[in-house]
Amino acid sequence: MAKKPKKQGTRHQRYVVYRDGPRCADVHVGARVRERRVLVGMTQDDLGKGVGLTFQQIQKYERGVNRISASRLWDFSKVLGVHVSWFFKGLDEKSGSKTRGDVQLTEEGLHLVRYYLACPKKVRKTMLSLFRDIAALQSGK
User: Fold this and answer.
1) CA neighbor of 108 nearest in space, from 35, 28, 26, 30
2) Would you list the domain boundaries of the chain?
3) How far is CA 109 from CA 75, 115, 126, in A?
4) What CA–CA distance (Å, rounded) separates 127 from 119?
5) How large is the angle between the packed helices 55-63 and 24-39, nearest 10 degrees?
6) For residue 57, what is the enclosing H or E element?
7) CA distance 60 to 36
8) CATH class assigned to 20-104
9) pLDDT-based confidence at 136, cuts 50/70/90?
10) How far apart, in whole angstroms, are the C-alpha atoms of residue 90 and residue 85?
11) Which is nearest to 80 in space by CA: 118, 106, 46, 116?
12) Burial class (CB in 10 A: 0-12, 13-18, 19+), 139
């Protein structure tokens, strides 16, 4: 019996992360998990224990290598103390990429924000003034 020839171009090729790279939305959501984790002062191990995963799996989620399922995202939202929609904030609905103005902070920047928010209001105002003055000196204004 003769085999039927396969039709060329009729099937949509499946998206594969190791071949095609992570999708923008997965990278964005993972970065938001990382951002919130650092802001609340958790390690990857702490978050992993909170949701029943290893720190290696948390690393994969944070880089967008592994896609986070809806139920897992729900678990993250409970442990990190945010609404599920928080993870999608700043994501452009049409392109699945970050919107303009959505700045991704470095690890150092996230720690700085965390410690800044932990300070009393008077100290925060003083620090803000200090940083503003330093930035003005650097830019020559």
Assistant:
1) 35
2) 20-104, 113-141
3) 26, 10, 18
4) 10
5) 130
6) helix 55-63
7) 16
8) mainly alpha
9) confident
10) 10
11) 46
12) exposed
What's the token pair of residue 65?
Answer: 């290598």
Give the helix/strand (H/E) hosting 116. Answer: helix 107-118
Nearest residue to 83 (alpha-carbon basis) of 36, 14, 24: 36
Q: Give the model confidence (pLDDT) of 86-129 as tens digits.
A: 999 988 764 555 544 455 667 788 888 888 888 999 999 999 89
* Angstrom distance (rounded) from CA 23 to CA 124: 38
Q: What whole-number percentage of the chain has pLDDT above 90? A: 44
pTM attached to this predicted model: 0.66
